[in-house]
Every structure is written in C-alpha cells, then in structure tokens.
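Give me the 3D structure for Trace amine associated receptor 1.
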Amino acid sequence: MDTESGFYDGYDFHPCYEINNVSKTLGRTSSPICTLLYIFLGFLSVITVCGNLLVIISIVYFKQLHTPSNYLIVSLAVTDLLVGIVVFPLSMSFSLSFCLHFRDLFCKIRDSFDVVLSTTSIFNLCCISVDRYYAVCQPLAYRSKINTSVVLVMICMSWGVSVLVAIGFIVAELNQEKCQENCFSDVVLEKILAPIFSFYLPVIIMLYIYLRIYLVAQRQARSIQNAVKSGESVSNMERKATKTLAIVMGVFLMCWFPFFLCFSFQLLGGVSVPVYETLNWLTLSNSMLNPFIYAFFYCWFRSAFRIIISGKIFQVSTQLQLVLLRTTGQTRYSVVVME
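Predicted structure for Trace amine associated receptor 1 (339 residues):
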C-alpha cells in the first residue's frame, strides 16, 4: 500500500497505530490502551444495535404503533441500526487514522457507508421535525398533511438524496487522487457543497422548525392559562416543552456540529488527526443516543420495551395490547397483558 509521505511523521496519532520513522510505514500495535479503546467502541456498537432493535421490534410488533409518525422513527432506527452493525465495525478495523495513511478499497467502502447512513440519519431527524411541526402547529391539518404516503415519500427522499451526496463525495475524492493539486472544483464539491447539503441546510431547517414549535407551544400554554387560570400547570408545560426541544437539538448539535466544523476547517489546515478521529466517533455515537431521545421519551414505547425485555412477547397465549388509560385527569399509555 502507498502512504502519504511525510504525513505526521513520527507522531503517534492513534493508540492502535505507530509510524516507523525510518521506513515511513504505519503499523498496528496491541497496547493496553488500544485494547480498552476497542472494548469501549464495541460496547457502544452493542448498545446502538440493541437500542435501535428495540425501537424497530416495538413498532413492527404492536399494531397500535403503526402510525405515519412512527414510520419515520422506524426509518431512523433502521439507519442507526446499520450504523451500529456496519459503520462501527468498519471504523474500528479501518479507522480514520488508518485511512488517512492508506487509501485502499476497504477505506472507500467504509467512507461510502459512513456518508450514506450518517446523511440519512440527519435527513430522518429533519423529517421528524417536520412531522412534529404539523402535529403541534397545525393539529387540525395534521392527518391530511402527514399521512402514510407522504411519510413514505419523505423516507425515500432521505435515502435517495443521501446516496446522491455519497456518490458525489466519493467521485470527488477519486478525482482528487488522479489530479492531485489541480482539482479545485472537486475540493469545493467535497469540502463545501457536501457539508452544506448533508448537514448545514438540514440543521437550519430543524432550528427554524423547532423554534416555531417552541413559540406555538408557548402561545398555546398562555391560551390555556387564560382559560383555566392555572399558572402552575402552564408553567410546567412550558418547562417540559423547552426541556424536550433543548435536549433534541442540544444532543444533535453536540454530536454533529464539531465534526462538520472541523471538516470545513480542513481547507485552512491545522486540524490534527486525533481531534478529527475523536469527532468522527462522536458523530457515530448520535446513532446510539437517538433511540433514547426519540423513543424512550414516549411512555408507550417504554411499556413496549418492558414487555419485550421481560420475554412476555414470546408467550403465544398472551395478547399484548396498548390501551389508553386516563387517570387523575392525565393521559398516559401502558401495556395491558390479556390472558
């Protein structure tokens, strides 16, 4: 394999690799830190797979969860599941540090899956924000605006656009290997246009939508306050809405924004390999956190999870049904086991 000569010569930029200063080659090491790192990353992969599997099984098995809104969550869970099954192992075997030194076939395969699945995950999150906008801001038109056909179109567009972005990214990368320094248009496509369409534009859309949701939720809370004169309950509603939206956008930006900011700054140089590698794993960890954010917040999902984890889902004689219970003036969901 060919290496990029002079690339971080003599700098131990990854605990599982070391550079020979004489031969300029990159070799693997089996240090204790490397072993602990792989155990930790393997643990993250297992959590990602298990969490998203729970979401998929819950929605597929319980017919009461077969709604257009939950189909978007299934699409997100499938994407994140593939990240845990495919991208995590490939990134462990062919890390970013390794692929910066060796540009072999497996690195290109890793990059392709990473770009497609990561971009699809972001687009799914954007589609979920659109669904929440209609549910909160236009509740009367929600069922007509967001139906199964519309959701399927949104899912197909998320996957289709992600594949196109990945194709453009890979083509630009291959052209750079051929033209070396005389390929300004390919650098613009890979370093500027790809991040804009795969991250910055969806982020702007999500920020705008969630801001609109927050403002509408506050107006609705004030209307309820004027109607029922219950300032304490309205204050709790406002705090809950603010907390939920802050967690949704906060976790998303925490995982994704540093990497794309670093990716954009590559044009200016000065981005170290350890930082780039760490931020890449931070983006992948978003696939582990999504099930907790977009599913575990809903009590009917938590009830379904308890049935699945306890093994009652395998009892043939047991009928599992989600029913709506109303207690103390509040609405909540739970699972009823009917023999």
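The two ends are 63 Å apart (CA to CA). Let me know if you want a second pass.
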